Amino acid sequence: MSRLVMKFGGTSVADLERIRRVARLVNAERAAGHHVAVVVSAMAGKTNELVAWTDGSGAAAQGLSPSDDEYDVVVASGEQVTAGLLAMTLRNMGVPARSWMGWQIPIVADDAHGRARIDDVEPEKLIAAMDAGEVAVIAGFQGVTRDGRIATLGRGGSDTSAVAIAAAVKAVRCDIYTDVDGVYTTDPRIEAKARRLAKISYEEMLEMASLGAKVLQTRSVELAMAQNVPVRVLSSFVEPGEAPGQGTIVCDEDEIMEKRIVSGVAYSRDEAKISLFGLPDHPGVSSAIFGALADANVNVDMIVQSHARTADTANMEFTVGKRDAARAVEIVRAAQPQVGFDDVQVNDEVSKVSVIGVGMRSHTGVAKTMFAALAEKGVNIQVISTSEIKISVLIDAAYTELAVRALHAAYGLDQL
């Protein structure tokens, strides 16, 4: 019998009725002959409530470090509640089940509390339980440091937990159940003609996740690609057998018969553009600016530099997340005496819109189509960045939905 890992997000376990539906979906996979492990998130809204409680405890006194390890103890408890409730529900249906916390498996993580990365999974006890016919219900989002402290994996970390477990137990697949029935060519809330993809490559999914698509956490896709774990995204809001063939398979590119030029359009409104004017145009300037930002853990995305009107000077624009914008400006201003630029400005009324597809590697004219479609709609491009399989543009936030719909039509994604 093959092993299968199933993961259910917060909306899928938001109340007891939904937990009962999850139990029926789990039991159906068990009846189909799988040895099942289930990774669960906290019930919808619970993690936000727990985070608010930690904020309410007050700030650390001057000279003291924040209690990040105790923060993790609090916020990891939401998944523990869900795991226990689902295990109880399964037992009440006559299905052998037990809950597992991250430290019981164990899922070994580093000590970067609140954003820990998984170092190792020691699955022997878990495999023994699964192969004995017991459903293992695992609290997602959490691991344990080598000195025995709970460490959480960052928001959305249950996806990463599930893929790590699937790799460790050599599962045939990792099924990620969410509130949508797969990965779409773009956000169906913006474009009604968006189409569900039957398959998408790891690389395309990684780009889509990092560029704003909310279906899967970026780190979970990285891990699935590194460990070659097939992932299926599907809806938890159906009963067993109601939607045969549903979902999207995230897999190796070689498993996709026909490579689409563009597979999807993604967007992100979590962007801020920082503009620097009158930079000295000589070596070392960029290193000083971006080195200071890196030291402060500020992630920089799109970067463009151009000559200024004054001789031997340049202007530079780059983007950061909105939450980092104020801090980025402070860091840049602190570097002004060393660097010697004239002025800095910030604009957080911008969005990033991207087209993604492995077919870009072998087809020309993708950028031409993108720029022509935006120009026809009167959308001005502020910054451009590219990789082998994506093109991203920064535009005025007011044109986000118009741009997404225009690009979706321009690449014929409504015809898939």
Account of the protein in words:
The structure is a single chain. By secondary structure, the protein is α/β, with parallel strands linked by helices. The protein contains 13 helices and 18 strands. The chain has an eight-stranded mixed beta sheet, sandwiched between helices. The two termini are 36 Å apart. The model has no long low-confidence stretch (mean pLDDT 91).
Search tags:
26% strand; 416 residues; 34% helix; 8-stranded mixed β-sheet; alpha/beta; 13 helices
Spatial order of the strands in the main sheet?
A: 3-6-2-1-9-11-12-10
Roughly what is the average pLDDT, rounded to an integer?
A: 91
| Class inferred from helices and paired strands | alpha/beta
**Beta-strand residue fraction:** 25-35%
Uncertain segments are: none
From the N-terminal CA to the C-terminal CA, the straight-line distance is 36 Å
Radius of gyration: 23 Å
Shape: globular
Give me the count of strands.
18
Largest pleated sheet: 8 strands, mixed
Count of helical stretches: 13
* Percent of residues in helices: 25-40%
